[in-house]
Prior knowledge:
It contains 3 helices and 6 strands, in the order ααββββββα. By secondary structure, it is an alpha+beta fold. The protein folds into 2 domains: 2-48; 52-118, no CATH class. Strands 1-2-3 form a 3-stranded antiparallel beta sheet, with no helix packed on it. 1% of the residues are buried. The mean pLDDT is 76.
Amino acid sequence: xxxxxxxxxxxxxxxxxxxxxxxxxxxxxxxxxxxxxxxxxxxxxxxxxxxxxxxxxxxxxxxxxxxxxxxxxxxxxxxxxxxxxxxxxxxxxxxxxxxxxxxxxxxxxxxxxxxxxxx
Length: 119
């Protein structure tokens, strides 16, 4: 989906450049919004939402950016406990599992992951 959307935007941008009627200021605004959108998606959403979590022996290994980022290794004994929160929305209720360390939420998992962890 990411590649398809980027390809569509690049195609649209190339078409905009080929039209002589559009002022260059409009193209700059379009390009600025495009760059802002991808920086926001990459550094905001993908960093926090697309996280790879591995549970091995007594460790939890977490890496951000679709598993390509720096790995953080936590020992299971470092955690004080966990907390489950329910977040209601218009169509569904989402369940989050938080692993706690020093009374702070350190790691969070959405309901699809918590079902796997519970079983």
